[in-house]
Amino acid sequence: MTDHDRHCWIITDGAAGNRRQAEALAAALELHSSPCDVAVRPPWKWLSPHWLRGAPAALRPSLDPPWPALAIGCGRAGAVALDALPARAAGGPLRIQILDPRCPTDRFDAVIAPEHDRLQGSNVHTLIGSLNAIDPHWLSAARDEDPE
Predict the structure, then answer these.
(1) Which residues contact 133 (CB under 8 A, 6 or more apart)?
(2) CB-based contacts of 67, cutoff 8 Å, min separation 6
(3) Nearest-angstrom CA–CA distance, 62 and 38
(4) pLDDT tens digits for range 52-87
(5) What is the dihedral of CA 59, 8, 121, 130, to 10 degrees?
(6) Which alpha helices (DSSP H) does the chain contain, by range?
(7) Measured between alpha carbons, how far is 18 from 92 in angstroms, rounded to an integer?
(8) Residues 118, 129: contact at Cβ < 8 Å?
(9) Do 79 and 102 form a contact (C-beta atoms < 8 A)?
(10) What is the pTM of this model?
(11) Taking a C-beta distance cutoff of 8 angstroms, is the pair 2, 40 a contact?
(12) Is 135 a residue whose pLDDT tops 90?
């Protein structure tokens, strides 16, 4: 695998809860990640992604090639940004959305959403709770740091 194949973008609005879930997925996949915090400009801010498709002009700052092998979006801004990226078949990255994108799930290669969102689709993967970085190594380090 090349370095390009081991790299991904984390696309969120910068909110800690959104970024942490996307970072947890990248870590579980053993990928190097770069955060891409975006803001969605009007009118997309009001109408996307359900009523208006994501477009490069919707994002501040813009996301430009070269594309990573994988782009992970979380939250509404992430969904708008992923929707604005070219599909994998058109030379874009594999696009994974975390949380309900509030638009048809087939706009993404995969969607990971909590069970309570009740999303359905051949590319939808549900989970109880949220993605996080808690694993045996994390727990062990926390125990060592504060044994009480």
Answers:
(1) 20, 23, 24, 27
(2) 85, 86, 91, 92, 93
(3) 8
(4) 787 888 899 999 999 999 999 999 999 999 999 999
(5) -90
(6) 16-28, 44-47, 75-84, 136-145
(7) 22
(8) no
(9) yes
(10) 0.88
(11) no
(12) no
HSE-up of 96 (CA within 13 Å, CB side)?
A: 19
Total Cβ atoms within 10 A of residue 79: 29
pLDDT digits (tens, 9 = 90+) for 88-126: 989 999 999 999 999 999 999 999 999 999 999 999 999
Whether residue 43 is preceded by a cis peptide bond, meaning omega within 30 degrees of 0, is yes
Residue 124 structure tokens: 């939808």
> What pLDDT shows up at residue 139?
85
What would the pLDDT profile of 17-49 be if each residue is shown by its tens digit? 999 999 999 999 999 999 999 999 999 888 877
Q: Are the CB atoms for 82 and 106 separated by under 8 Å?
A: no
| Residue 102 burial (CB count, 10 A) | 13
Q: Distance (Å, rounded) from C-alpha 148 to C-alpha 144?
A: 9
Instruction: Give the type of residue at 52.
Output: L
Q: Which residues pair with 124 in a beta bridge?
A: 111
∠26-15-114 over CA atoms, to 5°? 60
